[in-house]
């Protein structure tokens, strides 16, 4: 099967000598919901910039649904939609005009562009703002405007660079639902995000990039399986003045009604609850101290840096 | 990209450009009309009546073609320079760069947007000139052709200026220090026959002189220079600037990293 995106030995060295990408390779399969993660300056935006032609690569190749961008970039671009990290529309144009005009840039007849503009502005809750100048929109609305604009030509591959940055929780959730819907309709989605909960909730596969290299490229499920330990916060009904005996579990009292317990790989939560129950401590709720993917992300980058130092 | 899609893309850019300068018409269309009206009143009517004839015509008749051409040149240039630089500054030029629109279509769309504003301003200035003098156009086809070519040429120059510009100051430097002196010394207000041979020779290095005189020839039937050479020169410069602009676009000069 032809990959939706195939990147081979991609390199980018900027004019000042900074090597942003050191020959990365990865594939994204059609229909996938793929996360590209990494700390600031890791090379995520450079990679996206090269895919959409805003950054010129210095080596390697990129193919979109089998079309090499060096051979027929125009054909490849028709299959691609990009939502950049920073707002890049005219602040003085009306919402409707921004989206509809983008359709024209892709050669869409005016009538079709108008129909699609209405469809996506309605789906993204911007139809009521269609006559408003873009500068008057809230941050969340501006993000949705960029998504509507990227979808106007109904691309087979949609790349979103930090789409929910600065967006409140409620809106973020509704954007997740929207993205899951268009992914279920067949659009391949690549997402970069700082919210690892977002990547864990939405994405099936993941690549982690650091200092211009891919340090991990696997499925989210496989990655989570490598998690050796998880830290849970347990809220208990009883008021505690000291940490109960947790047996083989490592833990501490956070406050009089909550415990922090570390569960190593191979340990069972049932054993923990049994032991607490024997001491008359009832657990009323529990949650991860941090996002699981976040813990892995931090440990992977730490390992990578340690190896680099050695 | 298929030809119909290319045409749609071109029409979209042009429509957006026209929408932009008509939306802000108090900034784009009114000021040049007011400025040119003042030129007509002060130079043409008040001072011109004391100057007498120039080139066999009243001073007002002589100066009107040059002022119309000046309005076309400055508005074509500044429209593209400010519009394309604003698109760079706000980064909405990326909307076009990530699309399959070919570079030459992007250039052509912006340039024709500048030409549209130049011609609209030129038309309005011409209407105002009719309040001051009669314009009995001698060679209509030639007049229209040279004004269109001049608008294209200076729109292209504005486009290249915008590519190189790093700040809004950079798009005002060329109009202030290059375009305005060339226009004022390009025979708008006087015939170069009034100058000594040395200054006449120097004036003939000024491309604006050829456009102003070709336009004046179209309107009045008199010119300080050979009109055929004026057309050749303008067309050569259009070809050179278009090639240069395309080269800059294809190398992503100050547009892509």
N-end to C-end Cα span of chain B? 24 Å
Q: Outline of chain A, from the CA principal axes? A: globular
Indicate the percent of residues in helices of chain A. Answer: 25-40%
Multimer state: heterodimer
How many independent structural domains of chain A?
Answer: 2
Number of domains of chain B: 1
The percent range for helix content of chain B is: over 70%
The order of strands across the largest sheet of chain A is 6-7-8-3-9-10
Sheet-strand content of chain B, in percent, reads: under 5%
| Helix and strand pattern of chain A | EEEHEEHEHHHEHEHEEHEEEHEH
* Regions with little confidence, pLDDT below 50 for 5+ residues of chain A: none
Organism (chain A): Microbulbifer yueqingensis
Protein name (chain A): ABC-2 type transport system ATP-binding protein
Keywords (chain A): ATP-binding, Nucleotide-binding, Transport
GO molecular function, one term (chain A): ATP hydrolysis activity
Explain what the structure shows.
The complex is a heterodimer of chains A (310) and B (257). Chain A is an alpha/beta fold and 310 residues long. Chain A contains 10 helices and 14 strands. Chain A folds into 2 domains: 5-224, P-loop containing nucleotide triphosphate hydrolases (Rossmann fold, 3-Layer(aba) Sandwich), CATH 3.40.50.300; 226-293, Alpha-Beta Plaits (2-Layer Sandwich). Chain A has helices at 44-51, 73-78, 95-105, 110-123, 139-151, 169-184, 196-202, 220-225, 269-278, 292-309, and strands at residues 5-13, 19-28, 33-37, 59-64, 67-68, 80-83, 157-161, 188-192, 205-210, 213-219, 229-236, 250-255, 258-264, 283-288. Chain A has a 6-stranded mixed β-sheet, with helices on both faces. In chain A, strands 2-1-4-5 form a 4-stranded antiparallel β-sheet. A 4-stranded antiparallel β-sheet of chain A has the order 12-13-11-14, with helices on one face. In chain A, a hairpin with a 2-residue loop joins strand 4 (59-64) and strand 5. In chain B, 46% of the residues are buried. Chain B has one domain (3-250). By secondary structure, chain B is mostly helical. In chain B, helix 4 packs parallel to helix 7, helix 4 (59-89) packs antiparallel against helix 8 (170-184) and helix 4 (59-89) packs across helix 10 (207-220). The model of chain B has no long low-confidence stretch (mean pLDDT 89). Chain B: It holds the Pfam family ABC2_membrane. Chain B: GO terms for molecular function: ABC-type transporter activity. Chain B: Keywords: Cell membrane, Membrane, Transmembrane, Transmembrane helix, Transport.
């Amino acid at each position: 099967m032809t990959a939706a995106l195939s990147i081979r030995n991609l390199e980018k060295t900027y004019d000042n000598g900074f090597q942003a990408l050191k020959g990365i390779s990865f594939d994204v399969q059609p229909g996938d919901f793929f996360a590209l993660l990494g700390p600031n300056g890791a090379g995520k935006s450079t990679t996206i910039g090269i895919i959409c032609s805003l950054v010129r690569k210095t080596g390697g190749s990129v193919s979109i649904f089998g079309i090499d961008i060096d051979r027929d970039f125009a054909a490849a671009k028709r299959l691609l939609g990009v939502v950049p990290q920073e707002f890049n529309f005219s602040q003085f144009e009306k919402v409707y005009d921004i989206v509809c005009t983008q359709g024209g840039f892709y050669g869409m007849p005016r009538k079709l562009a108008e129909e699609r503009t209405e469809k996506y502005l309605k789906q993204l809750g911007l139809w009521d703002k269609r006559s408003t100048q873009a500068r008057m929109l809230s941050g969340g609305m501006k993000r949705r405007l960029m998504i509507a604009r990227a979808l106007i030509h109904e691309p087979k591959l949609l790349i979103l660079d930090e789409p929910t940055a600065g967006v409140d929780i409620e809106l973020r959730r509704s954007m997740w639902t929207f993205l899951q819907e268009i992914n279920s309709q067949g659009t391949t989605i690549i997402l970069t995000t700082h919210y690892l909960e977002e990547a864990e909730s939405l994405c099936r596969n993941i690549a982690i990039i650091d200092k211009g290299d891919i340090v991990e490229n696997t499925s989210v499920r496989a990655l989570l399986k490598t998690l050796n330990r998880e830290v849970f916060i347990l809220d208990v009904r009883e008021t505690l003045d000291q940490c109960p005996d947790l047996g083989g579990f490592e833990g501490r009292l956070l406050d009089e009604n909550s415990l922090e317990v570390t569960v190593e790989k191979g340990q069972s939560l049932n054993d923990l609850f049994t032991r607490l129950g024997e001491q008359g401590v009832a657990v009323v709720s529990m949650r991860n101290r941090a996002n699981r993917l976040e813990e892995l992300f931090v440990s992977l980058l730490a390992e990578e840096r340690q190896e680099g130092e050695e | 990209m298929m030809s119909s899609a290319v045409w749609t893309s071109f029409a979209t850019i042009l429509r957006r450009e026209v929408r932009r300068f008509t939306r802000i018409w108090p900034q784009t269309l009114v000021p040049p009309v007011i400025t040119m009206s003042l030129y007509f009143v002060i130079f043409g009517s008040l001072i011109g009546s004391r100057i007498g004839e120039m080139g066999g015509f009243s001073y007002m008749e002589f100066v009107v073609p040059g002022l119309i051409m000046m309005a076309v040149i400055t508005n074509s240039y500044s429209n593209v320079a400010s519009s394309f630089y604003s698109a760079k500054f706000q980064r909405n030029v990326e909307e076009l760069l990530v699309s399959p629109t070919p570079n030459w279509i992007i250039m052509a769309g912006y340039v024709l947007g500048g030409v549209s504003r130049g011609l609209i301003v030129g038309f309005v200035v011409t209407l105002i000139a009719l309040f001051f003098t009669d314009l009995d156009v001698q060679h209509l086809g030639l007049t229209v052709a040279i004004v269109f070519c001049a608008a294209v040429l200076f729109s292209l120059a504005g486009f290249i200026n915008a590519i190189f510009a790093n700040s809004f100051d950079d798009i005002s430097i060329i109009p202030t220090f290059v375009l305005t002196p060339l226009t004022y010394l390009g025979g708008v207000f006087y015939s170069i026959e009034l100058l000594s041979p040395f200054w006449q020779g120097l004036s003939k290095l000024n491309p604006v002189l050829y456009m102003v005189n070709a336009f004046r020839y179209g309107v009045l039937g008199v010119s300080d220079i050979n009109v055929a050479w004026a057309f050749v020169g303008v067309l050569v410069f259009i070809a050179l600037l278009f090639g240069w602009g395309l080269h800059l676009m294809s190398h992503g000069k100050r547009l892509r990293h």
